[in-house]
Amino acid sequence: MVVGFVGLGNMGFYMAKNLISKSPNDMIVYDINKEATKRFSQIELEKTSDSGSKNARIRVANNLAELAESSDYIITMLPESAHVKSAYLGENGLLSKLKPGTVCIDSSTIDTDVSVQISSTIIENGGIPLDAPVSGGVMGAEAATLTFMVGSRNSSEFENAKSILELMGSKVIHCGDLGAGQTVKICNNMLLGSAMIATAEAMALGTKLGVDPKLLATVINSSSGRCWSSEVSNPCPDVLPNAPSSRDYSGGFATKLMLKDMNLSLNAAKSQKIPLFLASLSTQIYGHACAENELANKDFSSVYKWINKK
Ligand code: NAD
Fold first, then answer.
1. Domain that holds residue 102
2. What CATH number is given to the structural domain containing 83?
3. Which atom of ligand 1 is the closest one to the Cα of 110?
């Protein structure tokens, strides 16, 4: 069996690495960034008695059509709706050479309506679509502890994809029909986006008032203010050595991608006529932070830096 993986960025690199490390499947990978595929094909993997170096089981595709032609499963991990749309539907895209019965798993976070449209076209072309966005960040991708939120046509297609997803995550949850995974993910990230800003404000205020940031975080994390942003990816530098904030906000989840997700939630709410006051304000704050180019590509916890500059 061959697994095709498209998008070897901050998340995709580790997800694909866990896939090849933990399964006997061959892999074919593609990224428009040649550095990304080069880095992946050079990863150090242990030798196995049956198949020699696992790296020999990694092939780099020259284009998406070539990847589709060789794959039984395809996983896409791309930034935004437009990238997933063009990867599938574009000229020489995945659908141009899709084999009948190929399982097409999109783990990118994209607009639910776009995801459902792409899934319909995959079905028309003989493929089996699933939306399976993730939560857990780059640290979760590296440790294979991601949570997958899955939308699929039925439980047997979900169970089939689950065996692959479990190689990259510790929780694989069926959320409902096609698109349901994206809906759940968008709601989660809307909450995360506001929680990160709230955490950054609390850390900034306490620190300015003279409290030691590590002590402040320790108390918050044993109190009612505790959340993922305070406990796992605290935005204040040097509170958590492994958090992006302690390496000048490099790696992690880019502020521009958080802005994208906040906008996805606002768009979804517009169609349901639900006013999202806090999410609207948070979206504006990430918009301002992104306008400072330096922060757009940094981890979204760099909103702490933006707050401190004001
Ligand atoms: P990233 O920008 O680091 O990686 C995306 C990769 O896709 C890049 O290597 C880029 O070169 C490649 N790419 C772009 N267009 C392409 C195309 N047409 N064909 C092939 N490759 C293409 O992004 P990321 O942080 O890995 O996030 C990917 C997705 O996962 C996004 O939808 C994001 O919202 C979601 N996500 C990210 C995190 C996180 O912590 N980074 C967490 C959960 C979900």
1. 2-177
2. 3.40.50.720
3. 32
